[in-house]
Amino acid sequence: MSRATETPAPRLTPQFCFNERLLRDFLRLSRSTIDDSITQNLNALYTPAREGFDPSSTARRQTDSRLDRPIDPTACQDFKDKVLFPSWQTRSDVLAYCAGVATSPDPEDPDLILRQTESARDRERVVDERLDPYSARFFPREARTESLANVVRNQRMVEEIIRSRTWGLVSERCDAPSAGWEEALNQWRERQQR
After folding, report:
1. How far, in Å, CA of 31 to CA of 37, rounded?
2. Which of 179, 103, 190, 180 is CA-nearest to residue 147?
3. Where are the domains of the chain?
4. For 116-139, what is each residue's pLDDT tens digit?
5. Could you report how far apart the first and last alpha carbons of the chain are, in Å?
6. pTM of the model
7. CA geometry: angle 184, 188, 191, nearest 5 deg
8. How far apart are CA 187 and CA 176, in angstroms?
9. How far, in Å, are 111, 120, 124, 127, 128 from residue 117 at the CA level?
10. Nearest CA-CA partner of 35 in 185, 167, 128
């Protein structure tokens, strides 16, 4: 029986955050290991041989996994405490760190001088829209902190969707209380503080 394991946390540096491909790859890998394969991860917790093999079980189709295949509550709690919540916390930590990087000044921005030069030229530009209606169009370069802020904002929205979906399946299969994923994650965090 294979069990999902948490994706190791990357070394958090501004360079990690500004490498948007690397940031997205880490988040994608972490999500695919735990959240995207949540059904398989939960099925791996099921121990079918607890009561012994029943030959009549192959004569009918099993459609309701909750009634016919209960998952041990201890195994569910162990999965949530040791795999699911730590994975979510790691991703939250990465996104929070990168959000901090995105809101900090960036003196090492390689395009800073180019953007400042373009901005100065654009202030001096005289536009006659009668001659060329498209000449007023200008697309300023986006600072890499702005680009990172957009990535973090989008990834946080993705996290909300994925966690809601994952928690719905976990709640259903593990007979978890009806608390939302935010409340369950906060309770786990509090237990970790003790």
Report:
1. 8
2. 103
3. 14-36+69-117+139-193
4. 566 556 655 666 667 766 665 655
5. 32
6. 0.72
7. 140
8. 13
9. 10, 5, 11, 18, 22
10. 167
Task: Calculate helix-pair angle for 85-103, 20-33, nearest 10 degrees.
Answer: 160
- Residue 12, classed as helix, strand or coil, is coil
CA dist., res. 19 & res. 25, Å (int):
10
Q: Which residues, other chains included, contact 61 with Cβ-Cβ below 8 Å and sequence gap of 6+?
A: none
Question: Do residues 178 and 47 make contact, with C-beta atoms less than 8 angstroms apart?
Answer: no
Between CA 86 and CA 189 the distance in angstroms is 9
Phi-psi region of 11 (alpha: psi -120 to 50; beta: other; left: phi over 0): beta
Q: For 113-144, b where at least 16 C-beta lie within 10 A, e where not — what string?
A: eeeeeeeeeeeeeeeeeeeeeeeeeeeeeeeb
Cα(158)–Cα(149) distance, rounded to whole angstroms? 14
Closest CA to 107 of 156, 65, 136, 144: 144
Residues 143-185: pLDDT tens digits?
A: 778 888 999 999 999 999 999 999 998 988 887 667 889 998 9
Structure tokens at 192: 């970790």
Tokens of 167: 């928690």
Angle between helices 20-33 and 144-174 (to 10 degrees): 0
pLDDT exceeds cutoff 70 at 4: no
Q: What tokens were used for 41?
A: 């991860």
